[in-house]
Design goal:
Helix content is 34%, strand content 25%. By secondary structure, the protein is α/β, with parallel strands linked by helices. The longest helix is centred in the first third of the chain and has 32 residues. It is rod-shaped, with a radius of gyration of 45 Å.
Length: 347
């Protein structure tokens, strides 16, 4: 009976991938994130392979229950247990899984090394790690309801096993005992042999599958999923992730050419006709035989132009009469008038 599956880690993977893809995360932090992703994926693969072999034999077993990925917190200590198998003899198999791509070696002092790129690299002992998990688990068992016999509370026994990939090589020393480090596909044989060679007294505390399942459900109820704070772990601050506001490029804006006051002494702008039937003020003044300044006065009198703060502006009436205001980059402001306006101005 499987009471709990492995917690989904897709949210953690997505968060790490998002941080890794963020261009504002410094390169040294990205290297740490890449390393974390690599270890997480390797761990997930190892747990998945072991879970398959565990479920194949124990998932539907009439005398066992299985709990995957159990995290317990008790009295300030934490146990992150990859897999638990409990049987009706109240034997608890605590399984630590490791995915070693190229294998693992153990020396005479019980020190573990993994192979990476053909070279050994020391790692913490998974056997010692699992022993610490069992110490926490023992204390947790004291807090849950257990069956009794003749007024005595039944106590479980614990077995520590380290599972590695079935394709990994294991370098074993001659003297240091490593029989609890085995490949995942050898687990069932190890458990069956352990049950066969167990003490006959263990039969006295056999419980029903229903009672065993209730013990397992109490453990699962104490599960506290890990919620990692990756930003704090890698020293990534919100300031690092805050987008830097782009500094707008300063494009110098040319100052508008001043509107020239059309006076008698002002230079006469060249004829720039927007259309063949329109004349500049100076050209129109020439045709009328008057000065440009005199023409401007007539246009102001007729309401076609107006003076504001010493400058000349075309009015709405002037636009209706066909007048246009133009700006020359070289000579400044000037006006165009329809050639027919000459008849009105000459009267």
């Amino acid at each position: 009976m499987i009471l709990k599956e492995t917690d989904a880690k897709s949210v953690h993977l997505a968060e790490l991938a998002s941080l890794l893809a963020n261009p504002r995360v410094p390169p040294d932090k990205q290297a740490l994130i890449e390393r974390e992703l690599k270890f997480m994926r390797a761990g997930m693969k190892g747990e998945s392979e072991s879970a398959y072999d565990i479920d194949f034999y124990s998932g539907a077993h009439k005398n066992r229950i299985v709990i995957h990925d159990l995290r317990l917190e008790h009295n300030g200590r934490v146990a992150q247990i990859d897999h638990l198998i409990l049987n009706r003899l109240l034997e608890v198999y605590v399984l630590e899984t490791k995915h070693f791509t190229e294998g693992v070696s153990i020396n005479e002092q019980g020190e573990f090394s993994i192979w990476f790129g053909g070279k050994p690299r020391g790692i913490p002992s998974p056997l010692e790690q699992n022993d610490r998990h069992i110490e926490v688990l023992k204390d947790v068992f004291k807090t849950i309801q257990m069956p009794t016999r003749m007024g005595f509370r039944l106590q479980p026994s614990f077995e520590s096993l380290v599972l590695v990939s079935k394709n990994a090589r294991i370098g074993r020393p001659k003297k240091f005992k490593t029989d609890r480090v085995l490949k995942s596909d050898q687990l069932e044989t190890w458990i069956e042999k352990s049950v066969e060679t167990g003490s006959p007294l263990s039969i006295a505390k056999i419980v029903s599958l229903e009672t065993l399942a209730e013990i397992g459900r109490q453990l699962v109820a104490l599960h506290k999923p890990l919620v990692p704070d990756y930003k704090a772990k890698f020293g990534i601050t919100e300031e690092m992730l805050r987008p830097v506001a782009p500094v707008p490029a300063v494009v110098p804006t040319p100052a508008p050419a001043p509107v020239r006051e059309l006076r008698e002494e002002a230079p006469i702008a060249p004829v720039v006709e927007a259309a063949p039937i329109k004349l500049t003020s100076s050209k129109l003044a020439q045709k009328l035989g008057i000065k440009t300044s005199e023409l401007i006065e007539r246009l102001v009198t007729l309401g076609l132009l107006e003076l504001r703060e010493g400058k000349t502006f075309i009015t709405a009436k002037g636009k209706e009469a066909g007048g246009e205001f133009r700006m020359s980059p070289r000579f400044g402001a000037y006006f165009l008038w329809p050639e027919g306006l000459e008849a009105i101005l000459s009267t």
